[in-house]
Amino acid sequence: GGKETPRQKMIGMMYLVLTAMLALNVSKSILDAFVTIDEQALEQNNVLVKSINGIGSTIQARVMDPQSKKTALEIQDKYLDLKKKINPVDDHFLKELNALMKITEMDDQWFTKDKDQLTSYKPLQDIKKKDDYDTPSMLFGGIEGESKKRGMALRQKLHDLRDDIILTSSDSVRDDKNVWHIITKDKLKSKDVFFKFLKDDQHPFMNDLKDIYQMMTKEEELPSGMDKKLKPWNEAMFYHQPMIGVITTMTAMRNNIRLAQEKASKMLLSRIDKPMMNINKVEAQVLASTQYLNV
User: Fold this and answer.
1) C-alpha span between 139 and 100 (Å, rounded)
2) Contact at 8 Å (CB) between 89 and 292?
3) CB distance 260 to 165 below 8 Å
4) Closest Cα partner for 208 from 287, 251, 270?
5) Phi/psi zone of residue 286: left (φ > 0), alpha (ψ -120 to 50 degrees), beta?
6) Alpha helices per DSSP H over the chain
7) Cα 289 from chain centroid?
8) Residue 199: pLDDT over 70
9) pLDDT at residue 160, rounded to an integer
10) Under DSSP, is residue 70 helix (H, G, I), strand (E, B) or coil?
11) Fewer beta carbons within 10 Å, N or C terminal of the chain?
């Protein structure tokens, strides 16, 4: 993936340790520990969304400046286009999370979003069926049929959105030497192809684009279980996983989406012509985000 902060590494390590412990023994203390991880991940989502909204406000301020208005309007269109593509995908992940809650807790409004895309949620400690393994398997972790289709659709949505984010934010970029950098969809078909293209092209956003590609790309098969046997992605993620752990998995994917959006939005902001009077080159300050949890 990318450069993880110590805190994010700790959250990821805790998740792996708890998952391994659950495989041996389902205890209340382990399930409760998942609640802490879930709440941290959900709060991180709101930190990212606030950062993205802040970038939007900064772009709007550049639109109001006559010296940067022309470029800022073009960039604002791309920023808003990103939001139109990303928010419905995030809505889908939240809807699937609530579908899980409807079956286990009889409540399909456990997680909600406001008009600013900030997530609210009822206390996770109140979840009664934290150790429900059957419902995640039934909904998303099946080896065939509708369950497998529904689970693998989540992976496909991430990949489709990955391509949209990269093409919307970083195609037809002109660098400081007046060289144009064009990205076409065929360059995104695999990690090796895309990374080679970025290196050969010397794209000005190469490192951020690598991060976006990696955090939004999920292998079709993953090692799973004690024997590390390769299984389809949806089985590895959702089959025989406790529902409290699936909340972590879903939220981590939502955080990957928002982190990719934040990186893309920052790239867009950097492309706006700086006001000529801005001698000190004061840059917009946005919230620093911790890195993503690989899932």
Assistant:
1) 8
2) no
3) yes
4) 270
5) beta
6) 6-24, 28-64, 69-105, 134-140, 145-170, 191-201, 206-215, 233-238, 243-270
7) 12
8) yes
9) 98
10) helix
11) N
Query: Taking 90 as the threshold, does the pLDDT of residue 1 lie above it?
Result: no
Minimum mean pLDDT among 49-58, 61-70, 199-208, 286-295: which range?
286-295
Q: Which tokens hold the place of 28?
A: 């209340």
Angstrom distance (rounded) from CA 201 to CA 105: 51
Nearest CA to 234 out of 130, 131, 157 is that of 157
Task: For residues 7 and 58, give the distance between their C-alpha atoms in angstroms, rounded to a whole number.
Answer: 28
Amino acid at 81: D
Residue 29 CA from chain centroid, whole number: 28
90-96 contacts at long range (C-beta below 8 A, 24 or more positions apart): 90/117, 90/254, 90/257, 90/258, 92/157, 93/154, 93/157, 93/250, 93/253, 93/254, 93/257, 94/119, 94/254, 96/139, 96/140, 96/150, 96/154, 96/250
Instruction: Give the CA count within 13 Å in the CB-facing half-sphere of 140.
Output: 25
Q: Which residue has the tokens 């340790």?
A: 17
